[in-house]
Amino acid sequence: MKRQSDPKKGALTGPSQRQLRAGELIRHALVEILREEELQDEALQNISVTVSEVRMSPDLKHAICFVEPLGAGLTGQDTTDIIKGLNRVSKFLRGRLGRSIDMKFTPDLKFIHDESFGTAAYMDKLFLDPRVQQDTRRLSDVVDDEDEA
After folding, report:
1. Cβ atoms of 69 and 49 closer than 8 Å
2. Whole-number Å distance between alpha carbons of 148 and 79
3. What is the CATH number assigned to the segment(s) 4-114?
4. What is the pLDDT along the chain (149 residues), one digit of tens a residue?
5. Domain locations along the chain
6. What is the DSSP string of the chain?
7. I need a surface site. Which of 21, 83, 89, 134 has the fewest CB within 10 A?
């Protein structure tokens, strides 16, 4: 997560508690809206989408929504089309969101593909590699020897 600088300390700080709480509120509301609404965009017909995270701007007027389309056989182009479709209907979703949450301002929505699922799958694949498993076995043997001593 991108960190913001704290002008008082000169150090990096994370999002505020308010931003985190608003992001979770919007994420839950978006999940319900996407589950219940029949979106008219062609790229979004019969598609399930997971909203994994919503990051809010400090003024809570902009939200970046990280999404992962679900479904077997989706290609990179399909995913790109789905993200573009979500961005096309973002004004509609914002209107529905405004009716379902209690915030002073309903944030503008921007949808981005969440790469963390692909990264996790790649890491799992790496850990299953025989060379890596050999190294982890050696490491566990060293740790066991230290525990016995």
Report:
1. yes
2. 51
3. 3.30.300.20
4. 455 555 565 566 888 999 999 999 999 999 999 998 888 888 888 888 899 999 999 999 999 999 998 875 677 778 889 999 999 999 999 999 999 998 899 999 999 998 877 777 788 788 888 887 777 776 666 556 666 65
5. 4-114, 115-149
6. ---EE-TTT-SEE---HHHHHHHHHHHHHHHHHHHH-----GGGTT-EEEEEEEEE-TTSSEEEEEEEEE-TT--HHHHHHHHHHHHHTHHHHHHHHHHHS--SSPPEEEEEE-THHHHHHHHHHHHTSHHHHHHHHHHHHHHHHHHH-
7. 134
- Is pTM beyond 0.90? Reply is no
Query: From the CB of residue 125, how many other CB atoms can be counted at a distance below 10 Å?
Result: 10
User: Which among 110, 13, 114, 10 has a CA at the least distance from the CA of 58?
Assistant: 13
Of the CA atoms within 13 Å of residue 13, those in its CB half-sphere come to 11
Q: Do residues 71 and 48 touch, judged by C-beta distance below 8 A?
A: yes
